[in-house]
Amino acid sequence: MDVEEKVALYEKVLQLWEGLARDEGDRVALLANTCALLHHTFPFHWTGFYLVRGDWLVLGPFQGPLACSRIGFGKGVCGAAWAQAKTLVVPNVHLWSGHIACSPLSNSEIVVPVCLPGGNVVAVLDVDSTEFSAFDSCDVQHLETLCRRLGEIWWRLS
Known about the structure:
By secondary structure, this protein is α+β, with helices and mostly antiparallel strands. 38% of the residues lie in helices and 25% in strands. Helix 1 (3-23) packs antiparallel against helix 2 (27-39) and helix 1 (3-23) packs parallel to helix 4. The radius of gyration is 14 Å and the shape is globular.
């Protein structure tokens, strides 16, 4: 997929997502539909959220094969993104020291924190691909925009 096509798809996703978010009052429902929207728009292998619960990231809504149910603070790509409160892009997960292999088919990954306006991380969006180097600055930009908006409305969702 070329860059223009990818940008157009992300813009469509963000527009549809804004409509979902505006009318949805339940956090789980919004996270579930967010995963489905991303997963069925792009050729991702796994798309999901891990929710901060004490010292753990606990599996939330997702699309794709079975996943790890708990990830410790700072562990794997998801735990590192949580600990650093920043987006991490891993072109080859097999070269990431401490990578947690939930699926042997995953070859690259992007993890984007969902932060409240004050900066506290409440969840992470984890997206895996079977392709190496599948994620670029376009994915970072648009997924960060989505997660920033999600963080902005997180407090009102039950």
